């Protein structure tokens, strides 16, 4: 069973993604900001991180840079989610994948499966 870490400060989004992804057979961990995400990763390393861009405490860009600076974590795939277009991200913010909010469930599952190296479900 693949483990996904959902990092978003909006509780409604984390609850919805937790329910959806759990129903799809994933083990889901949740964090409300980047700092909390680092704590979760120290407890259990995820196979994929779904990361919101705009959050308090430690935002998506800061977490992504912290991951890239850590040899043990830099190869983790990161699917960034944001209402801003990918072209608006700073040049040093290079997630593995990107979803513009709002997105469909089908698009989310397709990206998750693509980044995990699995065939997307119909």
TrEMBL record:
<dbReference type="InterPro" id="IPR011006">
    <property type="entry name" value="CheY-like_superfamily"/>
</dbReference>
<feature type="domain" description="Response regulatory">
    <location>
        <begin position="3"/>
        <end position="116"/>
    </location>
</feature>
<dbReference type="GO" id="GO:0000160">
    <property type="term" value="P:phosphorelay signal transduction system"/>
</dbReference>
<keyword id="KW-0597">Phosphoprotein</keyword>
<dbReference type="Pfam" id="PF00072">
    <property type="entry name" value="Response_reg"/>
</dbReference>
<protein>
    <submittedName>
        <fullName>Response regulator</fullName>
    </submittedName>
</protein>
<dbReference type="InterPro" id="IPR050595">
    <property type="entry name" value="Bact_response_regulator"/>
</dbReference>
<keyword id="KW-0902">Two-component regulatory system</keyword>
<feature type="modified residue" description="4-aspartylphosphate">
    <location>
        <position position="52"/>
    </location>
</feature>
<dbReference type="InterPro" id="IPR001789">
    <property type="entry name" value="Sig_transdc_resp-reg_receiver"/>
</dbReference>
């Amino acid at each position: 069973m693949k483990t996904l870490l959902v990092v978003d400060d909006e509780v409604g989004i984390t609850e919805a993604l937790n329910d959806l992804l759990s129903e799809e057979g994933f083990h889901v961990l949740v964090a409300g900001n980047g700092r909390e995400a680092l704590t979760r990763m120290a407890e259990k390393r995820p196979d994929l991180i779904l990361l919101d861009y705009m959050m308090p405490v430690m935002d998506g860009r800061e977490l992504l840079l912290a991951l890239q600076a850590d040899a043990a974590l830099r190869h983790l795939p990161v699917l960034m989610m944001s209402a801003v277009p990918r072209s608006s991200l700073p040049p040093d913010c290079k997630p593995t994948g990107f979803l513009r909010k709002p997105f469909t469930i089908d698009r989310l599952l397709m990206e998750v499966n693509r980044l995990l190296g699995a065939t997307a479900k119909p």
